């Protein structure tokens, strides 16, 4: 059984209220061969002091102005020595032991290139709502922007390099773009993508997050990304085909979940 090394990257800018939980969630996984890189874009709110508290456990960190989130993540992966890669944003965090379990999937299957689980949304009132995904389907992902959940995903460095890494020209939907390119490459190898029914991460909703404050910009980038795939037949973009795929998506969800609706965890985080 191969033992894989993982590189985890966290980009951050002025997230002092959240980043300690993010860092703790990575370091407490009990991963023996962990390379953790934090790339700060010049925070002025105390974030750097929190990073310094943990620097002996970090492979590398820096703090200076950069070209943005996608550029910082790309920088981290460019210097990565891990066989596996993932990133966790500075306002999200991993569930206990979940990342370690994900690594175990790769240790037991050398053909695996991309593995992802489910996730929870942490609402502003402190409650967590579980979000359950379906197995990856390129057409469904492209037509409905149903992407693989980034904070709950791990992939091989060989896959990352083979698709050219992140598109640093994108500022919002670079994860959607990456997973589409990766998923398209792996279409002929369905066993290389695995969805595990495990709540791997927690995605925090708060007013300053890009997902809340810049929704229109995500939509604009999503549309530009979709146009990249011009080899995707025009007839498949029709309203009729989209309705067909929507039904197919719902049927797949209920089949994989045994008709279990989305769960809501009302406990406080």
TrEMBL record:
<dbReference type="InterPro" id="IPR001173">
    <property type="entry name" value="Glyco_trans_2-like"/>
</dbReference>
<protein>
    <submittedName>
        <fullName>Glycosyltransferase</fullName>
    </submittedName>
</protein>
<feature type="domain" description="Glycosyltransferase 2-like">
    <location>
        <begin position="7"/>
        <end position="116"/>
    </location>
</feature>
<dbReference type="InterPro" id="IPR029044">
    <property type="entry name" value="Nucleotide-diphossugar_trans"/>
</dbReference>
<dbReference type="Pfam" id="PF00535">
    <property type="entry name" value="Glycos_transf_2"/>
</dbReference>
<dbReference type="InterPro" id="IPR050834">
    <property type="entry name" value="Glycosyltransf_2"/>
</dbReference>
């Amino acid at each position: 059984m191969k033992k894989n090394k993982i590189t985890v990257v966290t980009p951050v800018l002025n997230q002092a209220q959240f980043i300690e939980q993010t860092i703790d969630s990575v370091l407490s996984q009990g991963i023996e061969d962990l390379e953790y890189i934090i790339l700060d874009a010049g925070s002025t709110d105390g974030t750097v002091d929190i990073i310094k508290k943990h620097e002996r456990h970090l492979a590398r960190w820096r703090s200076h102005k950069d070209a943005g989130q996608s550029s910082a993540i790309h920088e981290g992966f460019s210097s990565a020595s891990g066989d596996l890669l993932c990133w966790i944003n500075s306002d999200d965090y991993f569930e206990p032991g979940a990342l370690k379990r994900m690594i175990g999937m790769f240790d037991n299957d050398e053909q695996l290139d991309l593995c992802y689980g489910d996730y929870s949304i942490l609402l502003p009132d402190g409650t967590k709502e579980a979000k359950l995904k379906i197995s990856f389907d390129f057409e469904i992902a492209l037509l409905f922007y149903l992407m693989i959940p980034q904070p709950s995903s791990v992939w091989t460095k060989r896959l990352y390099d083979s698709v050219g890494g992140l598109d640093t020209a994108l500022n919002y939907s670079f994860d959607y773009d990456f997973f589409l390119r990766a998923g398209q490459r792996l279409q002929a190898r369905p066993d290389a993508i695995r969805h595990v029914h495990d709540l791997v991460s927690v995605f925090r909703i708060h007013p300053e997050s890009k997902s809340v404050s810049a929704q229109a910009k995500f939509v604009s980038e999503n549309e530009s990304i979709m146009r990249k795939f011009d080899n995707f037949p025009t007839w498949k973009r029709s309203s009729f085909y989209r309705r067909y795929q929507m039904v197919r998506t719902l049927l797949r969800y209920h089949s994989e979940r045994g008709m279990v609706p989305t769960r809501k965890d009302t406990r406080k985080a």
